[in-house]
Specification:
- This is Polysaccharide lyase family 1 protein.
- GO terms for molecular function: lyase activity.
- It holds the Pfam family Pectate_lyase_4.
- It is globular and about 50 Å long.
- The strands form three sheets. It has a 15-stranded parallel β-sheet that branches.
- It is mainly beta.
- The N and C termini lie far apart (38 Å).
- The protein has four helices and 27 strands.
Protein backbone atom coordinates (compact mmCIF):
# COMPACT_ATOMS: atom_id res chain seq x y z
CA UNK A 1 0.00 0.00 0.00
CA UNK A 2 1.58 3.28 -1.10
CA UNK A 3 1.10 6.71 0.36
CA UNK A 4 2.35 10.08 -0.75
CA UNK A 5 3.08 12.20 2.29
CA UNK A 6 4.04 15.84 2.16
CA UNK A 7 4.34 17.77 5.39
CA UNK A 8 4.35 21.56 5.28
CA UNK A 9 5.35 23.97 7.98
CA UNK A 10 5.31 27.71 7.36
CA UNK A 11 4.83 27.06 3.69
CA UNK A 12 7.88 24.80 3.33
CA UNK A 13 7.65 21.27 2.00
CA UNK A 14 9.69 19.19 4.45
CA UNK A 15 9.29 15.68 3.06
CA UNK A 16 8.00 13.97 -0.04
CA UNK A 17 7.66 10.23 -0.48
CA UNK A 18 6.04 8.89 -3.64
CA UNK A 19 4.21 5.69 -4.39
CA UNK A 20 1.30 4.50 -6.48
CA UNK A 21 -1.80 2.39 -5.93
CA UNK A 22 -5.45 1.76 -6.69
CA UNK A 23 -8.69 1.32 -4.77
CA UNK A 24 -9.27 -2.05 -3.12
CA UNK A 25 -12.51 -3.60 -1.89
CA UNK A 26 -12.80 -2.94 1.81
CA UNK A 27 -9.95 -0.46 1.75
CA UNK A 28 -8.20 2.28 -0.16
CA UNK A 29 -4.73 3.00 -1.37
CA UNK A 30 -3.72 6.63 -1.22
CA UNK A 31 -2.19 7.61 -4.53
CA UNK A 32 -1.22 10.85 -6.19
CA UNK A 33 -0.38 11.56 -9.78
CA UNK A 34 2.99 10.29 -10.88
CA UNK A 35 3.41 13.38 -13.02
CA UNK A 36 6.14 15.35 -11.33
CA UNK A 37 5.19 18.70 -12.95
CA UNK A 38 1.66 18.41 -11.53
CA UNK A 39 3.00 17.79 -8.04
CA UNK A 40 5.36 20.71 -8.39
CA UNK A 41 2.54 23.04 -9.36
CA UNK A 42 0.52 21.94 -6.34
CA UNK A 43 3.44 22.48 -3.98
CA UNK A 44 4.06 26.00 -5.25
CA UNK A 45 0.38 26.90 -5.10
CA UNK A 46 -0.21 25.43 -1.64
CA UNK A 47 2.95 26.74 0.02
CA UNK A 48 1.73 30.24 1.00
CA UNK A 49 -1.45 28.97 2.62
CA UNK A 50 -0.95 25.37 3.78
CA UNK A 51 -3.82 24.30 1.57
CA UNK A 52 -4.24 20.51 1.44
CA UNK A 53 -6.84 18.26 -0.14
CA UNK A 54 -9.27 18.45 -3.00
CA UNK A 55 -9.01 22.24 -3.37
CA UNK A 56 -5.44 21.74 -4.61
CA UNK A 57 -6.82 19.88 -7.64
CA UNK A 58 -8.38 21.10 -10.86
CA UNK A 59 -5.88 23.94 -11.16
CA UNK A 60 -5.69 24.82 -7.46
CA UNK A 61 -7.31 27.50 -5.32
CA UNK A 62 -5.74 30.93 -4.85
CA UNK A 63 -8.78 33.17 -4.28
CA UNK A 64 -8.08 36.83 -4.91
CA UNK A 65 -4.35 36.22 -5.05
CA UNK A 66 -2.09 39.16 -4.24
CA UNK A 67 -4.35 42.05 -5.20
CA UNK A 68 -4.53 44.91 -2.66
CA UNK A 69 -7.06 44.22 0.08
CA UNK A 70 -10.47 45.87 0.33
CA UNK A 71 -11.45 46.58 3.95
CA UNK A 72 -15.12 46.31 4.92
CA UNK A 73 -17.03 46.76 8.17
CA UNK A 74 -20.66 47.02 7.04
CA UNK A 75 -23.15 44.71 5.31
CA UNK A 76 -23.48 47.04 2.33
CA UNK A 77 -19.72 47.30 1.80
CA UNK A 78 -19.29 43.54 2.18
CA UNK A 79 -22.10 42.82 -0.29
CA UNK A 80 -20.56 45.14 -2.87
CA UNK A 81 -17.08 43.68 -2.48
CA UNK A 82 -18.29 40.09 -2.69
CA UNK A 83 -20.25 40.72 -5.89
CA UNK A 84 -17.42 42.39 -7.80
CA UNK A 85 -16.52 40.80 -11.13
CA UNK A 86 -12.83 41.38 -10.39
CA UNK A 87 -10.46 39.35 -8.24
CA UNK A 88 -10.50 40.67 -4.67
CA UNK A 89 -9.06 40.13 -1.22
CA UNK A 90 -11.73 41.27 1.24
CA UNK A 91 -10.79 41.91 4.87
CA UNK A 92 -13.73 41.95 7.27
CA UNK A 93 -13.62 43.92 10.54
CA UNK A 94 -15.97 44.04 13.51
CA UNK A 95 -19.42 42.50 13.80
CA UNK A 96 -21.59 42.85 10.70
CA UNK A 97 -25.31 42.36 11.32
CA UNK A 98 -27.08 41.05 8.23
CA UNK A 99 -29.74 38.65 6.99
CA UNK A 100 -30.16 36.13 4.20
CA UNK A 101 -27.26 34.93 2.06
CA UNK A 102 -24.60 37.23 0.61
CA UNK A 103 -23.46 36.02 -2.82
CA UNK A 104 -19.73 35.39 -3.32
CA UNK A 105 -18.43 35.56 -6.89
CA UNK A 106 -15.30 34.02 -8.42
CA UNK A 107 -11.69 34.79 -7.51
CA UNK A 108 -12.34 36.04 -3.99
CA UNK A 109 -10.49 35.71 -0.72
CA UNK A 110 -12.56 36.67 2.32
CA UNK A 111 -10.46 37.07 5.48
CA UNK A 112 -11.69 38.00 8.92
CA UNK A 113 -9.56 40.38 10.94
CA UNK A 114 -9.41 39.67 14.69
CA UNK A 115 -12.93 39.14 16.02
CA UNK A 116 -14.65 39.54 12.63
CA UNK A 117 -18.20 38.19 12.84
CA UNK A 118 -21.19 37.80 10.54
CA UNK A 119 -24.31 37.82 12.72
CA UNK A 120 -27.59 36.78 11.14
CA UNK A 121 -26.50 35.93 7.60
CA UNK A 122 -24.38 33.51 5.61
CA UNK A 123 -22.20 33.44 2.51
CA UNK A 124 -23.48 31.87 -0.70
CA UNK A 125 -20.74 30.64 -3.05
CA UNK A 126 -22.84 29.94 -6.13
CA UNK A 127 -21.76 29.47 -9.76
CA UNK A 128 -18.28 30.59 -8.74
CA UNK A 129 -14.75 29.25 -8.79
CA UNK A 130 -11.53 29.91 -6.90
CA UNK A 131 -12.87 31.15 -3.55
CA UNK A 132 -11.23 31.22 -0.11
CA UNK A 133 -13.09 32.01 3.15
CA UNK A 134 -10.98 32.11 6.33
CA UNK A 135 -10.96 33.31 9.94
CA UNK A 136 -14.59 34.42 10.20
CA UNK A 137 -17.11 33.78 12.97
CA UNK A 138 -20.67 33.02 11.83
CA UNK A 139 -23.58 32.99 14.27
CA UNK A 140 -27.36 33.07 14.23
CA UNK A 141 -27.65 32.77 10.44
CA UNK A 142 -31.18 32.48 9.07
CA UNK A 143 -30.42 30.11 6.15
CA UNK A 144 -26.98 28.46 5.87
CA UNK A 145 -23.70 29.61 7.37
CA UNK A 146 -21.75 28.87 4.18
CA UNK A 147 -23.46 27.39 1.13
CA UNK A 148 -21.45 26.14 -1.86
CA UNK A 149 -23.36 25.20 -5.01
CA UNK A 150 -22.46 24.92 -8.71
CA UNK A 151 -18.95 25.98 -7.67
CA UNK A 152 -15.42 24.59 -7.88
CA UNK A 153 -12.06 25.14 -6.20
CA UNK A 154 -13.21 26.42 -2.81
CA UNK A 155 -11.30 26.48 0.49
CA UNK A 156 -13.15 27.05 3.79
CA UNK A 157 -10.63 27.31 6.61
CA UNK A 158 -10.37 28.33 10.28
CA UNK A 159 -13.93 29.58 10.68
CA UNK A 160 -16.17 29.28 13.76
CA UNK A 161 -19.88 28.61 13.30
CA UNK A 162 -22.68 28.33 15.87
CA UNK A 163 -26.40 28.58 16.51
CA UNK A 164 -27.66 28.86 12.95
CA UNK A 165 -30.92 27.91 11.30
CA UNK A 166 -29.94 25.24 8.76
CA UNK A 167 -26.57 23.89 7.63
CA UNK A 168 -23.31 25.29 8.97
CA UNK A 169 -21.38 24.40 5.79
CA UNK A 170 -23.41 22.82 2.97
CA UNK A 171 -21.86 21.76 -0.36
CA UNK A 172 -24.09 20.60 -3.18
CA UNK A 173 -25.30 20.77 -6.80
CA UNK A 174 -22.25 19.54 -8.76
CA UNK A 175 -19.72 21.48 -6.68
CA UNK A 176 -16.22 20.01 -6.79
CA UNK A 177 -12.62 20.38 -5.58
CA UNK A 178 -13.41 21.70 -2.08
CA UNK A 179 -11.39 21.61 1.15
CA UNK A 180 -13.05 22.24 4.54
CA UNK A 181 -10.32 22.54 7.16
CA UNK A 182 -9.69 23.67 10.74
CA UNK A 183 -13.24 24.92 11.37
CA UNK A 184 -15.03 24.73 14.73
CA UNK A 185 -18.79 24.16 14.93
CA UNK A 186 -20.69 24.19 18.24
CA UNK A 187 -24.22 24.71 19.57
CA UNK A 188 -25.69 23.56 16.28
CA UNK A 189 -27.65 20.63 14.80
CA UNK A 190 -27.12 20.13 11.03
CA UNK A 191 -23.41 20.64 10.53
CA UNK A 192 -22.11 19.75 7.06
CA UNK A 193 -24.23 18.40 4.19
CA UNK A 194 -22.60 17.12 1.00
CA UNK A 195 -25.09 16.51 -1.79
CA UNK A 196 -28.46 18.22 -2.21
CA UNK A 197 -30.91 15.30 -2.37
CA UNK A 198 -31.27 11.65 -3.32
CA UNK A 199 -32.77 12.67 -6.66
CA UNK A 200 -29.87 14.85 -7.73
CA UNK A 201 -27.63 12.11 -9.14
CA UNK A 202 -27.58 13.55 -12.67
CA UNK A 203 -25.82 16.69 -11.43
CA UNK A 204 -23.74 15.22 -8.65
CA UNK A 205 -22.27 11.88 -9.74
CA UNK A 206 -18.65 12.46 -10.67
CA UNK A 207 -18.50 15.64 -8.56
CA UNK A 208 -18.77 16.50 -4.86
CA UNK A 209 -15.12 15.64 -4.18
CA UNK A 210 -14.38 17.23 -0.83
CA UNK A 211 -11.73 16.97 1.89
CA UNK A 212 -12.70 17.54 5.53
CA UNK A 213 -9.69 17.72 7.82
CA UNK A 214 -8.83 19.00 11.31
CA UNK A 215 -12.32 20.28 11.98
CA UNK A 216 -13.64 20.45 15.57
CA UNK A 217 -17.20 19.14 15.88
CA UNK A 218 -17.97 20.27 19.41
CA UNK A 219 -21.22 18.81 20.74
CA UNK A 220 -23.01 19.13 17.39
CA UNK A 221 -25.68 16.60 16.42
CA UNK A 222 -25.53 15.33 12.82
CA UNK A 223 -23.96 15.60 9.34
CA UNK A 224 -20.23 15.58 9.99
CA UNK A 225 -20.58 15.22 6.99
CA UNK A 226 -23.68 13.54 5.50
CA UNK A 227 -22.53 12.49 2.03
CA UNK A 228 -24.36 11.67 -1.20
CA UNK A 229 -22.71 10.57 -4.48
CA UNK A 230 -19.20 12.05 -3.92
CA UNK A 231 -16.29 9.61 -4.35
CA UNK A 232 -13.74 9.83 -2.93
CA UNK A 233 -14.67 12.08 -0.03
CA UNK A 234 -11.85 12.30 2.50
CA UNK A 235 -12.62 12.79 6.21
CA UNK A 236 -9.39 12.78 8.18
CA UNK A 237 -7.90 14.03 11.46
CA UNK A 238 -11.13 15.63 12.70
CA UNK A 239 -12.09 15.73 16.39
CA UNK A 240 -15.62 14.67 17.33
CA UNK A 241 -16.52 15.58 20.92
CA UNK A 242 -19.88 14.42 22.31
CA UNK A 243 -21.36 14.36 18.82
CA UNK A 244 -24.89 13.06 18.24
CA UNK A 245 -26.25 13.43 21.78
CA UNK A 246 -29.54 14.61 20.25
CA UNK A 247 -29.96 11.32 18.41
CA UNK A 248 -27.59 12.14 15.57
CA UNK A 249 -24.31 10.72 14.32
CA UNK A 250 -20.85 11.51 13.00
CA UNK A 251 -20.36 10.61 9.31
CA UNK A 252 -22.97 9.10 6.96
CA UNK A 253 -22.22 7.70 3.49
CA UNK A 254 -25.26 7.34 1.23
CA UNK A 255 -26.40 7.03 -2.38
CA UNK A 256 -23.31 5.30 -3.74
CA UNK A 257 -20.84 7.74 -2.18
CA UNK A 258 -17.32 6.66 -1.28
CA UNK A 259 -16.05 8.08 2.01
CA UNK A 260 -12.64 7.46 3.60
CA UNK A 261 -12.87 8.09 7.37
CA UNK A 262 -9.26 8.15 8.49
CA UNK A 263 -7.28 9.10 11.56
CA UNK A 264 -10.12 10.86 13.37
CA UNK A 265 -10.61 11.13 17.15
CA UNK A 266 -14.10 10.19 18.39
CA UNK A 267 -14.91 10.99 22.02
CA UNK A 268 -18.29 10.28 23.66
CA UNK A 269 -19.79 9.67 20.21
CA UNK A 270 -22.12 6.66 20.18
CA UNK A 271 -22.50 6.52 16.37
CA UNK A 272 -19.25 7.73 14.80
CA UNK A 273 -20.04 6.68 11.21
CA UNK A 274 -22.49 4.57 9.24
CA UNK A 275 -23.86 3.78 5.77
CA UNK A 276 -27.30 4.95 4.75
CA UNK A 277 -29.30 7.67 6.49
CA UNK A 278 -33.05 8.21 6.73
CA UNK A 279 -34.49 7.36 3.27
CA UNK A 280 -31.08 7.50 1.54
CA UNK A 281 -29.58 4.22 0.39
CA UNK A 282 -26.23 3.10 1.83
CA UNK A 283 -22.98 4.26 0.28
CA UNK A 284 -19.45 2.94 0.71
CA UNK A 285 -17.34 3.80 3.75
CA UNK A 286 -13.80 2.74 4.55
CA UNK A 287 -12.62 3.44 8.11
CA UNK A 288 -9.03 3.12 9.25
CA UNK A 289 -6.68 4.32 11.98
CA UNK A 290 -9.39 6.10 13.95
CA UNK A 291 -9.16 6.65 17.73
CA UNK A 292 -12.19 5.94 19.94
CA UNK A 293 -12.82 7.09 23.50
CA UNK A 294 -16.15 6.02 25.03
CA UNK A 295 -17.57 5.78 21.50
CA UNK A 296 -19.22 3.21 19.24
CA UNK A 297 -17.37 1.14 16.67
CA UNK A 298 -19.17 2.48 13.58
CA UNK A 299 -20.42 0.74 10.45
CA UNK A 300 -18.12 0.46 7.43
CA UNK A 301 -18.08 -1.48 4.17
CA UNK A 302 -17.44 -1.36 0.44
CA UNK A 303 -14.60 0.33 -1.39
CA UNK A 304 -13.57 3.92 -2.07
CA UNK A 305 -11.67 5.46 -4.99
CA UNK A 306 -8.04 6.50 -4.59
CA UNK A 307 -7.06 9.81 -3.01
CA UNK A 308 -5.13 11.77 -5.70
CA UNK A 309 -3.28 14.32 -3.55
CA UNK A 310 -0.55 14.19 -0.93
CA UNK A 311 -1.26 14.78 2.75
CA UNK A 312 0.15 14.14 6.19
CA UNK A 313 -1.87 12.11 8.67
CA UNK A 314 -1.40 13.21 12.28
CA UNK A 315 -1.26 10.45 14.87
CA UNK A 316 -4.93 9.78 15.68
CA UNK A 317 -4.46 9.82 19.47
CA UNK A 318 -2.94 13.32 19.19
CA UNK A 319 -5.76 14.77 17.08
CA UNK A 320 -7.80 16.01 20.08
CA UNK A 321 -5.00 18.23 21.37
CA UNK A 322 -3.95 19.39 17.89
CA UNK A 323 -7.45 20.34 16.79
CA UNK A 324 -8.67 21.95 20.01
CA UNK A 325 -5.56 24.13 20.06
CA UNK A 326 -5.80 25.33 16.47
CA UNK A 327 -9.28 24.98 14.95
CA UNK A 328 -11.65 27.90 14.53
CA UNK A 329 -11.38 31.63 13.98
CA UNK A 330 -8.68 33.59 15.77
CA UNK A 331 -6.08 30.82 15.54
CA UNK A 332 -4.21 32.06 12.46
CA UNK A 333 -2.52 35.29 11.46
CA UNK A 334 -4.13 36.90 8.41
Amino acid sequence: MGVIVRRKRAGVVLALMTASGAALAGGIVNAASAQTPGLARQAVMAAPTDLVGWATQGGGTTGGGNVPATNVSSASALTTALSSSSAAVIRVSGTISCSGMLKVTSNKTVLGNAGATLAGCGLNVTKASNVIIRNLTFRDWDDDGINVQYSTRVWLDHNTLSNGHDGAIDIKRSSDYVTVSWNRVFNHDKTMLLGHSDGNAAEDVGHLRVTYHHNFFDGTNQRHPRVRFGNPVHVYNNFYRSVGSGGGYGVASTEGAGVLVEGNYFENTADPFHRGEASSDPGNLVARNNHFVNSGAGDAGGSVASIPYSYTLDTPSNVKSIVTASAGAGKISV
